[in-house]
Write a structure and sequence with these properties.
Blueprint lengths: L5 E4 L6 H12 L3 E3 H9 L3 H8 L1 H18 L3 E3 L8 H12 L4 E5 L2 H8 L12 H19 L2 E4 L5 H12 L6
Parallel strand pairs: 1-3, 1-4, 2-3, 4-5
Amino acid sequence: MTGPALVLVGPPASGKTTVGTAVAAACGLPFRDTDRDVEAETGSSVSDLFVQQGEPHFRALEEQAVARAVAEHTGVLALGGGAVTSSATRALLVAHGRAGGTVVWLDIDVASAARRAGLSRDRPLLAVNPRAMLRTMLEQRAPLYAEVATQRVSTAGRAPEEVVAEVLAVLAPQVDR
């Protein structure tokens, strides 16, 4: 298998960065986040890109960043929460899973996600009425996360260490630690 040892998908505040960095450290692998890739490439924050260029522009940049990262990165890769809204990204992730890659959907409930996200300015889609937006997002995107995931791990009401341990157990057959 080529590509990332682990790809993490899931909604905002599901723990992709927290879990991803911990799993990468435990496995001695590099961590990469496609939102940070887009920010580095454009010199703008994700929030600023949404406000100044609009969501469709950001999603096009994100789709390109994911394609590059899946082709180049061999460690742990975290995708932005909306990356799965791209059919090209979903096809890429499904193919990665079929080729033996691990794609973990970090699932979360609305109450837990709302507590974690708070009123963060770094989450542009949650700026107005975060709880309602999270509920809608979770409902709309759940089938997309399910389509691409080879495993599903709940993060709701769980300590990061518990989630990391479960992801490491899922990943163990794939990575020689």
